[in-house]
Write a structure and sequence with these properties.
The complex is a heterodimer of chains A (424) and B (353).
Chain A: H1 5-12, H2 21-28, H3 30-37, H4 48-54, H5 63-90, H6 94-106, H7 120-128, H8 136-145, H9 147-152, H10 164-168, H11 176-185, H12 195-205, E1 208-211, E2 217-220, E3 230-232, E4 235-237, H13 242-253, H14 256-270, H15 277-289, H16 294-303, H17 318-329, H18 334-343, H19 361-364, H20 367-383, H21 388-395, H22 408-416, H23 419-422
Antiparallel strand pairs in A: 1-2, 3-4
Chain B: H1 2-11, H2 13-18, E1 32-38, H3 44-47, E2 48-49, H4 54-59, H5 63-69, E3 73-76, E4 79-81, H6 86-93, E5 97-104, H7 112-121, H8 130-138, E6 142-145, E7 160-162, H9 172-181, H10 186-196, H11 206-218, E8 225-230, H12 239-261, E9 268-273, E10 294-300, E11 308-309, E12 330-331, H13 332-344
Parallel strand pairs in B: 1-8, 1-9, 5-11, 5-12, 6-7, 6-8
Antiparallel strand pairs in B: 2-4, 3-4, 5-10, 9-10
Helix pairs in contact in B: 1-10, 11-12
Classes of the chains: A mainly alpha (424), B alpha/beta (353).
Chain lengths: 424, 353
């Protein structure tokens, strides 16, 4: 079964149609509808409650106070997750939301590590979203300076063995962040680096830390910085303190291996598990020719003919399926959506590993997953007050109903389990 | 469409007996095998501690004293077992547990994700897991439990996969509607067929899921092979407390499996391993970084296992791999393969891709 360009724009690039979205895409034109979104600014949730929480005095020995604090932290984390879902359910620039989710997953942190609990949503807001249509080099730097990443991959505590802190308190390097920057964020695991490069980047990153006193911002701690020059990928970086790692990140963002790695990942997420070499090459070249511009790379993907193949080629991840169902029936309850995301094994900001969620059908497409989706569809079908005709029109489906007698709920259930919602 | 035919084929007994490689009918296979992947690389040197190694104290100035103070269980020959594994300690006494020392796959880089792919398939870019191949070779039912179908279970053989959540299983009537709805969708039809045969949902903690799996395996017609996984072993910082929590969970899962297997436990082997080991030296943040040689645990209800197995390479800097990691002295896949051949009492073809 093949699909038309409006459906591709709405579901392959976006989050699935809300009522009226397909009509709007028809009116504006599929590519134009997508490109227009790249000029918009995304939503901004209020960071006030987070900062209020972070600036409260840190540790307390009182069990009651500790309990209350940890409860407030969980509530703040829930608030961030619910905002994310509400934007996704209601957005009329769903491509921007998809891009935000994609890059957040590229730089995955996981809130099962406690210090990150309140910070994952803040990282998406402050380090990812501002750069969705900007430069990857800026996003990389913003993420690596964000407390969520510095705490998640332990760099906040990493000290140069020859630094003041290193010598006095017998502390040393932690190579976690440096390794994942090379392997997961820039060059990719098959990239041209080795163990000495991991150690050199780890040394340059020493001192990049978190200031817990003033609301948990970035701080550079000279007393933890490993002094001296370092050599990364054959290039020598003199010791310019905080700037040493900054310069290394800028060079990594512009490395051809990074271009190839990011292009493959982007095309794999949006277009196909095994994207064509031609599409990937076009994206990589655009990225290189436009000084790591993510806007240019995204537009190149929107304009490439291989992105518009009418065969279904991506099994939607659980969260995308849920947004698809939620947008179709007009769900706006972010807390309820998160409960379902947990049941479908994709709890928000909790991929459990710095590699983020896997992105191919092999990981997500199974009988158990299909059975779980059927239960979700049944719940949604019962709760929806749209008629089956309305729902079919919103989804752009012309149903050929089975011969069995069907209630309105049955019809909604089948529409929400239509192959078009599962795969695009 | 090849896959669909295969699924339909295995659904009918007639077709099943026509399969050329069938050796056992699933009802006849007494033995059971369970594999547990510990994702993130567990620190073998803390789980089975070489307490007599003179180098260890210098390499681990904060981690070793904390561990020794917690009171590890002596295993003899200069090794001791982490105190958060009381069930394993009991099994050792009954000769039902063996620690395979200094093991590694042939993978020699330090990426978790490539390392896990290699562990599960024999290649960093593998698409067929060795447990799936084993299920084909033995022609027996298998099940994987976890949020996603793990690579070790992926491939041609139809392995049941259980997510385990709080959603009910769809009723037969709901599935029947979908069968009509998916008439032109062979792939989805195939998934629906498998969905019908899924075991009951078992929401709750990992130990509860393990217990349910083991109870299913205890049945004559239950799964013969199973894969489980536990995450969160990547102990770069503050390793001591983290490992205690992880090992307590693992110990609970092992106890639940043995309880659930019941009378089937004497016919069962459980293997536990990670993608690689961790550095000999502790790092600057009371943790350890990615290493090479590691530890595998073998548990067997049939007993007669020595507490320790493998050649110990020592921990001096010259004895280490690249001066930093425990030197691997045995191939993990090889010893598992040999263990499987003994367990199922038959020669097995290579299982890796």
């Amino acid at each position: 079964m093949s699909i038309d360009a409006h459906h591709i724009a709405s579901t392959r690039f976006g989050l699935g149609p809300r009522p009226g979205e397909l009509a709007q895409i028809k009116q504006v034109g599929a590519q134009r509808w997508l490109e227009q979104q790249l000029t918009q600014t995304g939503p901004q949730f209020d960071n006030g409650p987070l900062h209020a929480l972070l600036s409260q005095p840190g540790r307390s020995d009182e069990p009651e106070a500790r309990k209350a604090r940890s409860k407030r932290a969980r509530q703040e984390a829930q608030r961030q997750v619910q905002y994310r879902h509400q934007y996704a359910l209601s957005s009329d620039a769903p491509l921007l939301e998809r891009l935000s989710h994609f890059w957040t997953n590229h730089f995955a942190v996981s809130i099962d590590k406690r210090p990150v609990l309140m910070l994952a949503g803040a990282m998406e807001r402050d380090a990812i979203r501002p750069h969705l249509t900007g430069r990857f080099s800026d996003m990389l730097s913003a993420v690596c300076r964000h407390p969520a990443m510095l705490l998640y991959l332990d760099n906040a505590q990493s000290a140069g063995p020859n630094s003041r802190v290193g010598m006095k308190r017998n502390k040393g390097l932690n190579e976690n962040l440096a390794r994942e920057i090379l392997e997961l964020h820039t060059l990719g695991v098959d990239g041209p680096y080795g163990q000495p490069d991991v150690e050199a980047l780890a040394a340059m990153l020493t001192g990049w830390s978190v200031d817990r006193g003033t609301g948990g911002g970035f701080v550079f701690r000279p007393a933890m910085h490993q002094s001296g020059p370092q050599t990364l990928l054959g290039k020598r970086y003199p010791d310019t303190q905080e700037q040493q790692a900054q310069q290394a990140l800028q060079a990594l963002a512009r490395h051809p291996a990074t271009a190839q790695f990011l292009a493959t990942k982007l095309a794999r997420h949006f277009i196909a598990d095994e994207p064509s070499a031609e599409l990937v090459a076009t994206l990589a070249k655009t990225y290189r020719d436009h000084d790591t511009s993510l806007k240019a790379m995204t537009i190149a993907m929107i304009r490439h003919p291989h992105s518009w193949r009418i065969e279904r080629q991506k099994w939607r991840q659980p969260i995308q399926y849920l947004y698809g169902v939620g947008r179709a029936i007009g769900l706006d309850d972010g807390a309820q959506l998160e409960r379902l995301a947990r049941q479908l094994a994709q709890p928000t900001y909790q991929p459990g590993s710095p590699a983020g969620w896997p992105d191919t059908a092999q990981a997500w497409r199974s009988a158990s997953a299909l059975a779980s989706r059927a239960e979700v569809a049944q719940l949604a079908a019962k709760r929806s007050d749209h008629s089956a005709e309305q729902l079919a029109a919103s989804l752009g489906i012309e149903p050929r109903w089975p011969d069995s007698p069907l209630s309105a709920t049955d019809q909604r259930y089948l529409l929400l389990m239509h192959p078009q919602l599962l795969e695009v | 469409m090849k896959r669909r035919q295969f699924l339909q084929g295995s659904a009918s007994l007639l077709a099943l007996s026509a399969l050329p490689m069938q050796v056992w009918g699933s009802g006849e296979q007494q033995q059971r095998f369970i594999w547990i992947t510990l994702r993130g690389a567990w620190d073998g040197l803390s789980v089975v501690v070489p307490t007599d190694e003179p180098q260890l104290k210098a390499a681990r100035p904060t981690l070793l004293p904390a561990l020794l103070e917690a009171g590890p269980t002596p295993l003899g020959q200069g090794f001791a077992l982490h105190p958060a594994l009381p069930t394993v300690a009991k099994l050792v006494k009954q000769q039902q547990a063996c620690a395979h020392l200094a093991v590694a796959t042939q993978y020699r880089q330090r990426s978790h994700f490539d390392g896990q792919a290699y562990l599960e398939s024999g290649a960093t870019s593998g698409s067929t897991g060795w447990l799936n191949t084993l299920a084909s070779v033995l022609d027996v039912p298998a099940e994987a439990v976890g949020p996603r179908l793990p690579l070790i279970a992926r491939g041609e053989a139809p392995i049941a996969h259980q997510i385990h959540n709080r959603l009910a299983s769809p009723s037969e009537q709901r599935l029947a509607l979908l069968r009509e709805w998916y008439q032109d969708e062979p792939y989805l039809t195939g998934l629906l067929q498998q969905a019908q045969a899924l075991p009951e949902q078992q929401p709750g903690k990992m130990a509860a899921q393990a217990r349910a799996l083991a109870e299913a395996m205890a049945d004559d017609r239950g799964p013969v092979l199973a894969a489980l996984e536990l995450s969160g072993w990547d102990s770069h910082a503050n390793q001591h407390g983290l490992l205690i929590r992880r090992l307590e969970q693992l110990d609970g899962v092992i106890a639940a499996l043995i309880a659930g297997l019941g009378k089937r436990w004497p016919d069962t082997q459980i293997w536990i391993a990670s993608e690689f080991g961790r550095t000999v030296k502790e790092n600057g943040t009371k943790g350890t970084d990615h290493g090479t040689g590691g530890l595998a645990l073998q548990l067997s209800g049939a007993g007669q296992l020595p507490p320790l197995s493998g050649r110990w390479p020592g921990l001096s800097e010259q004895a280490r791999y690249e001066g930093r990691d425990l030197m691997p002295t045995q191939d993990l896949h090889d010893i598992v393969h040999a263990g499987l051949e003994r367990h199922f009492a038959r020669p097995l073809p290579p299982l890796l891709s």
